[in-house]
Write a structure and sequence with these properties.
Number of helices of chain A: 2
Order of helices and strands of chain A: EHEEEEHEE
Bound molecules: adenosine-5'-triphosphate, magnesium ion
Number of strands of chain A: 7
Low-confidence stretches of chain A: none
Oligomer: homotrimer
Strand order of the largest sheet of chain A: 2-5-1-6
Mean pLDDT of chain A: 89
CATH topology of chain A: Alpha-Beta Plaits
CATH class of chain A: Alpha Beta
Strand content of chain A: 35-45%
Distance between the termini of chain A: 12 Å
Helix content of chain A: 10-25%
Shape of chain A: globular
Amino acid sequence: MKKIEAIIRKSKYSTVRDALHEVGVNFFSYWDVTGLGNEKEGHVYRGVSYSTSDIQRRYLSIVVNDDFAETTIKTIINSAGTGEVGDGKIFVSNIDECYRIRTGEKGGNTLK
Amino acid sequence: MKKIEAIIRKSKYSTVRDALHEVGVNFFSYWDVTGLGNEKEGHVYRGVSYSTSDIQRRYLSIVVNDDFAETTIKTIINSAGTGEVGDGKIFVSNIDECYRIRTGEKGGNTLK
Amino acid sequence: MKKIEAIIRKSKYSTVRDALHEVGVNFFSYWDVTGLGNEKEGHVYRGVSYSTSDIQRRYLSIVVNDDFAETTIKTIINSAGTGEVGDGKIFVSNIDECYRIRTGEKGGNTLK
Ligand SMILES: Nc1ncnc2c1ncn2[C@@H]1O[C@H](COP(=O)(O)OP(=O)(O)OP(=O)(O)O)[C@@H](O)[C@H]1O
Ligand SMILES: Nc1ncnc2c1ncn2[C@@H]1O[C@H](COP(=O)(O)OP(=O)(O)OP(=O)(O)O)[C@@H](O)[C@H]1O
Ligand SMILES: Nc1ncnc2c1ncn2[C@@H]1O[C@H](COP(=O)(O)OP(=O)(O)OP(=O)(O)O)[C@@H](O)[C@H]1O
Ligand SMILES: [Mg+2]
Ligand SMILES: [Mg+2]
Ligand SMILES: [Mg+2]
């Protein structure tokens, strides 16, 4: 199983959620975070310039079976963008095991 | 070391925390998230029906030594449930290294 | 690529952020969490004593290329501490893949 973490613009959330639903990804968790992106602008601190404003982002954490990872990633890339810098990032990592608390069962079937 | 992430009902938090304390898991972090579970009900969108209401969940992140992982998972399963759908999920992943900031020391001893 | 998660005192956040900027780590995400540390003090519950107060912490999630991990960790250890118990923890894990949403490109170059 794979964990797909996407840090997106808050304004694109409902577009991304609906696009994920359309490809069958109905279960995930999200919360709001502050993002420091790679903006080289704004004030100068010890010779390097940084963005002065932190950006409010939405963090989506989605665990899927391996054969769903590519679809999930493509769907986010195709729905979360505006074309402007700051559209966000996706990070993919491995999940060793998954459990459904109600039944105690484990494995990829709990993700369906 | 293993990271155990549990997404539980907020109403079960203190029961889960006390159960973890009883088996010696005294250190973890938590925050509140919104959960989209696998509810196939509610309004219909492009032919598929979804839950209309997002659910407030509590996200627990617990890093433990390998020999503590099973106890931690069992304790959550045994304490977080109500028997109704929506009791939550547990995800297990690998942690390569761990540091205690105060001392700079690393390794599994920093988890004890 | 590595994910470096640091759970620090909120009061040390701007010091840590500035120290990270100085070594070239300009991009990360953070949010506030509640921490249950390893404090064996406070009230007694079934024979074991626990801290009665949960602590507000700041959770930093930083994805870096492998050759930047050590610098990032050292910088956090050197900037986040007060010398008192409760300075926080750092967890390191593996990231399989990374994408920049705007361009769709993947790999370690998206972290620069
Ligand atoms: N290396 C990173 N680790 C953790 N979070 C990151 C990292 N890089 C970016 N983020 C998060 O993603 C958000 C969006 O980043 P952003 O879209 O600006 O990436 P970028 O690579 O600079 O792309 P662009 O060139 O399109 O701006 C940031 O505000 C931050 O929350
Ligand atoms: N694949 C997933 N990725 C990320 N978070 C998830 C995933 N599945 C569930 N969650 C989170 O867990 C919460 C609870 O899920 P839930 O208990 O409904 O799981 P379930 O598999 O549908 O089990 P049940 O049949 O008992 O309802 C969701 O609200 C969501 O926050
Ligand atoms: N094993 C863990 N899993 C998840 N989060 C943890 C874990 N241990 C500590 N934390 C988080 O880190 C915060 C700080 O922990 P703390 O600095 O007290 O660690 P410690 O090992 O007890 O070090 P010290 O001896 O300096 O107090 C906690 O409040 C909690 O949010
Ligand atoms: Mg950017
Ligand atoms: Mg459900
Ligand atoms: Mg402590």
